[in-house]
Every structure is written in structure tokens, then in C-alpha cells.
Design brief:
With 430 residues, this protein is an alpha+beta fold. It folds into 3 domains: 98 residues, Nuclear Transport Factor 2, Chain: A, CATH 3.10.450; 114 residues, Gcn5-related N-acetyltransferase (GNAT) (Aminopeptidase, 3-Layer(aba) Sandwich), CATH 3.40.630.30; 178 residues, Aminopeptidase. 26% of the residues lie in helices and 33% in strands. It has 13 helices and 18 strands. Strands 5, 6, 7, 8, 9, 10, 11, 12, 13, 14, 15, 16, 17 and 18 form a 14-stranded mixed β-sheet that branches. Strands 1-2-3-4 form a 4-stranded antiparallel β-sheet. Strand 9 and strand 10 form a beta hairpin. Helix 2 crosses helix 3. The chain is globular and about 75 Å long. It starts with 10 loop residues before the first helix and ends in a 9-residue tail after the last helix.
Length: 430
């Protein structure tokens, strides 16, 4: 077995040594029975998955740099592979024999003195400054988002969300968030985690913060998540290089609508809590066939509307004849720069929307009415997210000033016929 000097003579120490030895040998000689004797698996993970990771993963023999043994059954260890890019690993094992591994997290080691912690409300201004210093590069266009001091407002709209920050010398140097929510794929319900708002300024992007923050987010939902997913702009070359869940064949479109151009007459009526059943009926009839959509009840819709009523609630939903449209006036300040030309706009975000068969024109009338209201609120743009093949996609993209295409990466396997049924995107989780 590979020498692992520095590991403790304990149940967890023995299992770490076994795991590293299997990696160095690329799993040579391993059997399913041996893997099952050392690692505890929960669906969808399997011994075959572990054997494949041993076969294709890191095979360089590491040196143990530092060990933090929290108990005989849990430790964190830093490994040095001789390339100035050390890794931190957390291992936990069962307290009863055979002490199988029940938890593993690997992250790039970060600089000494770095603290990874949950984000706090008081971090809002610093987080906004961090995002401003971490612009998105979409092809030849640089996009900078400015969310203001209520930076974490988007998280309050989510049902089960957590954000972690990396802090060093009193300065925030990274952010990553995760949100757990239900989806329905292929007729089966799953609890999946969206990894979102991963931000590290350019000057800190070689410090291992991406990996360390990702590990914390995934660890926060361990045992509760049945899959992970995310959206990546096709023109974001850096994001497209990052590995992740399998890419589905259908894409996603962020349509940016010009509110001044589309603003129309007032139409429909503003919703109240008494309209829950009517809104639910329209939404479910509109999206029931689309992958990812979980049918609402009056109770689930009400819970959604009560998460952050200062940002989005009943009064932000317009109801027409067979159509509904909810919008979050997000006051998101967007700056774009391309070929020396700079554009600035304040953007809102379309959330709950739908129309029953024959009411497509009614949704457009509601949209134009909402655009007029957004202009009055100081917004110039409305972002409208639609999945490929969804019922409103053609209408919305046809009205857009420009459309940003995204890939959809989801670890749950894409079912057959998705393109015909369409993909639902809940813009709260985008």
C-alpha cells in the first residue's frame, strides 16, 4: 500500500490510506465487493461509479501536508502533489465497523488565513462590490451586474438557499450559492440543487476559491439532493470549460426586452391572495407537459409569494383572460461594453407566466402593460427566461431586442421527447 506517513492510526485514517492507494493504482485489482466494504453508497451513486473514478482520476502519489483529526471517524487532510496546487479533502466514516466511508469532499487548498463561511445580510455591499469586480465575458461583450446593497435579495426569493463566501484579511474574495428545490423530470419528482452566483474576481481566480466554495455548497445539501444542475451562457468561454452534470439536448434563452419599445396600455388586473386558484389553473395548464415543471397548488403558490413580499408577491402578478404574468422589478443595473461602446440599463425579471390554449395574445398584452409599469419604475429592460420548446418561447424571443442562449446542464438524465414537450425554467432559480 502507498505510504501515507502523517495519517492517524484510526478508522478514518485507515480508510483515507486505502482510498489514496486505490487512486494511485488506478483501481487495479479492485472488485465491487471490496469497494462496497469500504464505501457506503446512496442512490444514484454506485460501486461502479467509484471504480470508474479510481480508474480515471488522480494517480500521482501525494504527500500528507497537514491533518486535522476532528475525531477517530472524521478528518480533513491536505495533500501535496508536487505542483504547488495542494488539495484539501474531508473524510468521514461510520462509527461502527467496518467503518465505511460515508462522506468525501475534495477542494483546492486556499491560502492560509482564508475563512469559508455563510454569507450574512451585512455582507451585501461587499458582495456587490465583489460581483462588480468579477464581470462576465460573453464573447466580445463584457457584462457587469450591480445589484445594490440588497445583493442577497435573489436568495430570499428561493425556498432553500445558502451562500458561502471566502474571506481573507477582512476582504471577500469569492462567493458561491446553492438552492435546493423540486423538479419533475420524466414524470418523476426529484430534489435537485442549482449551483449559482459563483463569483471570484480575476485577481483571485488562481487561488483555489472556486473549488473550495463549490465543495461547501455541495456539502450543505449532502443527503438531500438527488442531482445538481446549472445554466451556462454559450458565449461564456470560461464557464463552458468548467465540467459538470450532463448537458441536455435542449437549450435555454434569456430574452432581453426593451420596455420603452414594448410599453402598451394598462391591461388585466393586479392579483391578490384570493386569486391563487385561478393563477394555479393557468400556470398548470400552460406548463404541465414541460420537463422540470412541478404543478402548483394554491398552498405552494402562496408559500412562494410569501418568501420575500418586499420583492415579489401577489401585487406583482397581472391576470388577464386566460393568461398571467408576474414580474420582479429587480432594479438590476447592467453595464455592457463592446468595442469601446458602453451601454447601461436597469432590468427587471419575468417570473411566473403562462397562458391557456388560445390566449397567447393575452399574455403579450399583459407583457406590454407590465413594460409600461417598469418604465414608470425606472426600468429600461425586462429579462424573460424560456426553455427550448416551452409554450411561450417563440412569442418571447420574437419580441426580444437580443437573446442570450444558454446550455442546460443537469445530472438527472434527459428523458426522450423533451424537445417536443419543452423545458420549463423557473427564473427564480436561474
Amino acid at each position: 500500500m502507498t505510504s501515507m506517513a502523517g495519517l492517524p492510526d484510526s478508522p478514518v485514517g485507515h480508510q483515507v490510506a486505502w482510498h489514496v492507494d486505490c487512486s494511485v493504482r488506478r483501481g487495479e485489482g479492485l472488485t465491487v465487493e471490496e469497494v462496497e466494504a469500504h464505501i457506503s453508497f446512496s442512490p444514484p451513486s454506485s460501486p461502479q461509479d467509484a471504480m470508474e473514478r479510481f480508474r480515471t482520476g488522480e494517480s500521482r502519489p501525494p504527500r500528507v501536508v497537514k491533518v486535522d483529526e476532528r475525531s477517530p471517524y472524521e478528518l480533513s487532510v491536505r495533500f501535496d502533489y508536487g505542483d504547488d496546487k495542494p488539495w484539501d479533502a474531508l473524510f468521514a466514516v461510520e462509527e461502527e465497523p467496518p467503518h465505511r466511508i460515508v462522506r468525501m469532499f475534495w477542494t483546492r487548498a486556499v491560502a492560509e488565513g482564508t475563512v469559508i463561511r455563510p454569507a450574512l445580510d451585512g455582507d451585501g455591499a461587499a458582495l456587490n462590490d465583489l460581483e462588480v469586480r468579477a464581470p462576465m465575458q460573453l464573447g466580445e461583450t463584457t457584462v457587469t451586474y450591480d445589484r445594490g446593497e440588497d445583493f442577497l435579495g435573489f436568495g430570499r426569493l428561493m425556498g432553500d438557499n445558502i451562500c458561502f463566501v471566502a474571506e481573507r484579511d477582512g476582504q471577500l474574495v469569492g462567493l458561491a450559492c446553492g438552492a435546493l428545490h423540486p423538479v419533475r423530470i420524466g414524470g418523476q419528482d426529484y430534489s435537485v440543487m442549482l449551483l449559482h452566483h459563483l463569483r471570484v474576481p480575476v485577481e483571485h481566480r488562481k487561488g483555489g476559491y472556486f473549488s473550495a466554495l463549490n465543495g461547501r455548497v455541495f456539502g450543505a445539501f449532502e443527503g438531500r439532493s438527488e442531482g445538481a444542475y446549472g445554466y451556462t451562457a454559450l458565449e461564456n468561454a470560461e464557464g463552458m470549460r468548467i465540467g459538470g452534470p450532463g448537458t441536455w439536448s435542449v437549450g435555454v434563452f434569456r430574452s432581453v426586452l426593451d420596455c420603452g419599445t414594448l410599453a402598451g396600455r394598462p391591461h388585466g388586473r393586479w392579483a391578490t391572495a384570493d386569486d391563487a386558484d385561478e393563477i394555479v389553473d393557468v400556470l398548470n395548464r400552460a406548463h404541465e407537459r414541460e420537463e422540470q415543471y412541478v404543478p402548483h397548488t394554491a398552498a405552494t403558490l402562496t408559500e412562494r409569494m410569501q418568501r420575500a413580499p418586499d420583492l415579489y408577491t401577489w401585487e406583482h402578478v397581472l391576470i388577464g383572460d386566460g393568461a398571467v404574468l408576474g414580474v420582479w422589478p429587480a432594479h438590476l443595473r447592467v453595464t455592457t461594453e463592446r468595442d469601446g461602446e458602453v451601454g447601461r440599463a436597469v432590468r427587471g425579471v419575468a417570473l411566473d407566466h403562462g397562458f391557456v390554449p388560445g390566449a397567447e395574445a393575452e399574455l403579450e398584452r399583459l407583457l406590454r402593460a407590465w413594460c409600461a409599469r417598469l418604465v414608470a419604475l425606472g426600468h429600461a429592460e425586462l429579462a424573460f427566461i424560456t426553455g427550448e420548446g416551452s409554450h411561450a418561447q417563440e412569442l418571447i424571443t420574437g419580441l426580444a431586442r437580443h437573446v442570450d442562449p444558454y446550455s442546460f446542464r443537469m445530472s438527472v438524465q434527459e428523458p426522450e421527447g423533451t424537445r417536443e414537450r419543452g423545458l420549463y425554467v423557473d427564473a427564480i432559480y436561474f
